[in-house]
Design brief:
- InterPro entries: Mur-like_cat_sf, Mur_ligase_C, Mur_ligase_C_dom_sf, Mur_ligase_cen, Mur_ligase_N, MurE/MurF_N, UDP-N-AcMur-Glu-dNH2Pim_ligase.
- Pathway: Cell wall biogenesis; peptidoglycan biosynthesis.
- Its cofactor is Mg(2+).
- Catalyzes the addition of meso-diaminopimelic acid to the nucleotide precursor UDP-N-acetylmuramoyl-L-alanyl-D-glutamate (UMAG) in the biosynthesis of bacterial cell-wall peptidoglycan.
- With 496 residues, the protein is α/β, with parallel strands linked by helices.
- The protein folds into three domains: 97 residues, MurE/MurF, N-terminal domain (Udp-n-acetylmuramoylalanyl-d-glutamate--2,6- Diaminopimelate Ligase, Chain: A, domain 1), CATH 3.40.1390.10; 235 residues, 3-Layer(aba) Sandwich (UDP-N-acetylmuramoyl-L-alanine:D-glutamate ligase); 151 residues, Protein-Tyrosine Phosphatase, Chain A, CATH 3.90.190.
- Helices cover 32% and strands 22% of the residues.
- It is built from 16 helices and 24 strands.
- It has an eleven-stranded mixed beta sheet, with helices on both faces. It has a six-stranded mixed beta sheet with strand order 17-18-22-19-20-21, sandwiched between helices.
- Strand 12, helix 9 and strand 13 form a beta-alpha-beta unit.
- Helix 4 crosses helix 10.
- The protein is globular.
Length: 496
């Protein structure tokens, strides 16, 4: 793209250095490691690094246009054009949208936000649409998917440059739809600016990320930005759609933030657009009645937990009222969905006890999982747990301790993304004054897994919380490759 065509969309700017005329822009980058000749480098002030410190390095590596929030005289002789703006965060969203020719306008985009349930709900929507003949893109915690191509996920929601690049790849690959998880960090930091969302879903809000948001009110406000971002434009001749969990105390805040039509779901509340009753577990499947237009429909879900029934209803509303599929079509294709890796995933290698892997790491999610498993246990409920908030929201640890001691018969505390914080310190802050249930601390997660599986008895239920389908552990600054399910399977095979 010509540099003049790229930069012309910025109204508020000052231009220094070389003229833009005749320059071509090959790529937009905000990481000096990704610079290629004739690219445009965005200087972003991050948590650990200020991109303005690398301007000379960026130009030397080949950047011919640089976008900054401050101008220094030392840059006046660089072989580049310097574009001064108030916010490079905002500018990168605008420029990415321009560079990739507004790709989100060419896709039907559904965005899911909430503390828990984003991955399951987004995976359901993508899977069901695929079974109905769509080509989809999916961006979230587990991975980034573009049709049949999969990439590792760096963040739940990529930064604006990567997001628009992925949208463009989806368009090129012939995708019709993009389903994305919208994290509160992404919403507050503007990663979804200039993404034309057509359907927004709110799952729930419980304590998480208060190291970043500080209060639940600020956390809720960040989530509500997704619904405000729907705007007041029609999509395909109709208002956009907001889908809200009526059972959550913040549901009205989300509904009030948008001019879109609002559909609601609930477990048991007949005032919702759809609601579920008569939930029971039969042969490791969840059976329930789904009420649509006051008519009951029997549904079988190959997942456990009332919260997964809630996730199901959120996905159902998206396909029915945004995409327009019939209730019968949705129930048919949803019955083939096998669940999500690391979300109440059963691991069976022929052992005589039940093994469950779940991503639960917030107090609410941990209680949902443990309460569900404790109610169905035959032997002991053995819980392996850590806290993924190393150097993060340590205030959640006492509540996690209260929950895990309430439901478990034996507990193994271990590492879960400790970052730079000592594992012993994290575990002791979870344990607090509790001693009513036997427990042990084993710092290395693989050793803790081996210990648990070696001490499980026939009919016990063993649950591994925190990692789920994540493919790494964060130890110090390093993202160490790790696969919880594969470690468990290998250990089980060794024991049998």
């Amino acid at each position: 793209m010509k540099a003049t065509d790229l930069i012309e969309v910025l109204r508020l700017k000052a231009i220094y250095g070389e003229p833009l005329a005749n320059k071509e822009i090959s790529l937009l980058v905000n990481d000096t490691r990704k610079i290629i000749p004739n690219c445009c480098y965005m200087a972003i002030r991050g948590e650990h690094f200020d991109g303005h410190q690398a301007i000379e390095q960026a130009v030397e590596a080949g950047a011919n246009v640089v976008v900054v929030e401050e101008y220094r005289e030392a840059w006046q002789n660089l072989n580049a054009t310097i574009i001064l703006v108030d916010s490079t965060f905002r500018a990168q969203a605008i420029l990415a949208n321009q560079f990739y020719h507004r790709p989100s306008e060419k896709l039907a985009i559904t965005a899911i936000t909430g503390t828990n349930g984003k991955t399951t709900t987004s995976s359901m929507i993508s899977d069901w649409l695929t079974r109905l003949g769509h080509k989809t893109g999916l961006l979230g915690t587990l991975h980034y998917k573009v049709n049949e191509n999969y990439y590792p996920a760096v963040n739940t929601t990529p930064n604006a440059l990567e997001l628009q690049r992925l949208f463009n790849e989806m368009v090129v690959e012939g995708c019709q739809d993009a389903i994305i998880e919208a994290s509160s960090h992404a919403l507050q930091l503007g990663r979804l600016w200039y993404t034309e969302v057509d359907c927004a879903i709110f799952t729930n809000l419980t304590r998480e990320h208060l190291d970043f948001h500080h209060t639940m009110e600020h956390y809720a406000y960040a989530k509500s930005l997704l619904f405000a971002q729907l705007g007041q434009k029609f999509a395909n001749g109709r208002p956009k759609l907001a889908i809200v969990n009526l059972d959550d105390e913040y549901s009205q805040l989300m509904a009030q933030a948008t001019a879109a039509e609002v559909a609601t779901y609930s477990i048991g509340n007949a005032d919702a657009t759809v609601y579920a009753t008569d939930i029971e577990v039969v042969d490791n499947q969840t059976e329930f009645k789904l009420w649509v237009n006051q008519r009951p429909h029997q549904v079988s879900l190959k997942m456990l937990g009332d919260y997964n029934v809630a996730n199901y209803m959120a996905a159902f509303l998206c396909l029915k009222y945004y995409y327009g599929y019939s209730t019968e079509e949705i129930i048919r294709v949803s019955g083939e969905f096998e669940g999500v890796s690391g979300r109440m995933q059963l691991v069976d290698e022929g052992q005589t006890y039940k093994v469950v892997v779940d991503f639960a790491h917030t107090p609410d999610a941990i209680e949902n999982v443990l309460k569900e498993l404790a109610a169905k246990k035959q032997g002991r409920l053995i819980t392996l747990i850590g806290h993924s908030g190393g150097n993060r929201d340590s205030g959640a640890r006492p509540e996690i301790g209260d929950i895990v001691f309430k439901y478990s018969d034996y507990i193994v505390f271990t590492a879960d993304n400790p970052r730079h914080e000592p594992v012993q310190k994290i575990c002791q802050e979870i344990i607090g004054q509790h001693n009513e249930v036997d427990y042990t601390i084993i710092e290395k997660r693989e050793e803790a897994i081996a210990f648990v599986l070696n001490h499980a008895n026939e009919h016990d239920t063993v649950v591994f919380t925190g990692k789920g389908g994540e493919l790494y552990q964060v130890i110090g600054d390093d993202y160490v490759p790790y696969n919880e399910v594969e470690v468990i399977k290998a250990t089980l095979r060794k024991n049998i």
